[in-house]
């Protein structure tokens, strides 16, 4: 710092050599600025909560909480609106389950291969290749689900009537592929953190590689793997573009994946991209559904973060 | 993505050759099964890219970047306003989020005492924000920026919203890069009488720049592909002009693509595919730049 030199401070003579000779105000200012930047993230969360609460409160001033959570009809944008969120919740749940049925086994298998079988060189090529999947914009996945996967399913459906033009199945399948890298990458990290001594012990007892992987490494990394899956659930619940494009805009309470349905995010996207007047009640519904979505994903994220912490503490 | 790896994971020990002497058919079946898992993702990616390219082929020409969108005449429609809108929005996103993100990362790595509750809160908060659905950021932008602060649905609102969206990614990546700089460098600098900030600015930051740059590029490539929050922020589909300032209306490529997918006519699907090819090409270039940066400048200490 280029401030003019000051006379040495007057302190007890014996400790003077080790004492800072002048206060560095510039350092303090910089530290405060940096802290301010870090606080932007806290302000973001606060901003989300602040922007959600007033419209949501207004919404529940007119709609009963019980009706919202237990009602089976969602016609928020119609002339005779009904605000039962179950159809949106059911669709979200169904598509999430389909996505996880794809993502968890496949992601876990890929993680085991990358962690236990692949040579360092192979891993160096395959892991980034897998992660490209996570970089593909979701609008592209939506396009692919609607114009490639759905026709494919319709043409080759083996029994009965095929899926609708918009359906939950193709959205869920494609979303599953999108989540594979999330689960594979985090699980692989957890497996890599398992100490070699555990593997060596199992090998010494005469186990093969498969037994070591499945009976030793996976259980030892379980909390990390579960965290990865919880994060996967959170991503599936929050994913918007794929469901907005491929699963349809009709909120129906159905558990047939061949039907068209609308998820929570799908509704927010549909309602939000129209021209809804700010003062109208429809506008408030966006925030009410958004608040529900935020609470659900918030809880999921916290569970996932906690689990990751847990396995880190064990092995480091 | 939240899990961006800037530093290479440590090399693992060579595979051991101590497998049992017996022939184990289960082993090879299992191995093949695992390889299939890996294959699913990569084959899917290959099919997706091929399909998009084939669909886009008839429309992949100069009309795409010379013309503006048109609802009536798909054969004359282009995506110029979306391409320029993307450039505008992403430039300002970078301008807002990169300095903030790097500063926050410096604070958390160099100054913050991890035992203090407020520092732990900031950290937890960032981890949570990294996994908050992007459409929630759209609600934030709509409720707080566009309405409360009455910024309207402009380039500025979009850039601010996307900045907040990718900020956690920038912070996490920058932290990893800063953490990878060895302590001995800091200690040497401090021992020579440099202050903490001088140490950070002249020693730590230059050493961490490649990692920070890699993470930043990946974060911005996420911002480019993001459509959900902008759906709520008035990125309308048929904008027949390029943005001229922060107050301007705009559209971006993902939104333009979304608009074209929603059209029923066949021509618009080819158009959507063509715009997707452009979007993917931009993203691929950015990813390649990130990988190149990492390989070119990464140091092993």
Automatic annotation (TrEMBL), chain A:
Domain ABC transmembrane type-1: 89-304
Biased composition (Pro residues): 1-11
Membrane topology: Multi-pass membrane protein
Stored CDD domains: TM_PBP2
Region (Disordered): 1-21
Transmembrane segments: 29-53, 88-114, 126-149, 169-191, 212-233, 286-308
Keywords tagged on the record: Cell membrane, Membrane, Phosphate transport, Transmembrane, Transmembrane helix, Transport
Record-linked NCBIfam families: phosphate_pstC
Family that this chain belongs to: Belongs to the binding-protein-dependent transport system permease family. CysTW subfamily.
Name under which the protein is recorded: Phosphate transport system permease protein
Species of origin: Streptomyces durmitorensis
UniProtKB/TrEMBL annotation, chain B:
Compartments, as annotated in UniProt: Cell membrane
CDD domains assigned to the protein according to its UniProt record, in alphabetical order: TM_PBP2
Keywords, alphabetical: Cell membrane, Membrane, Transmembrane, Transmembrane helix, Transport
Entry keyword Cytoplasm: no
Pfam families: BPD_transp_1
Residue ranges occupied by any ABC transmembrane type-1 domain in the UniProt entry: 83-289
Bilayer disposition of the protein: Multi-pass membrane protein
Gene3D superfamilies per the UniProt record, alphabetical: MetI-like
Transmembrane parts of this sequence: 32-54, 82-108, 129-149, 155-173, 223-241, 271-293
Family stated for the protein in its record: Belongs to the binding-protein-dependent transport system permease family. CysTW subfamily.
Task of the protein: Part of the binding-protein-dependent transport system for phosphate; probably responsible for the translocation of the substrate across the membrane.
Protein name per UniProt: Phosphate transport system permease protein PstA
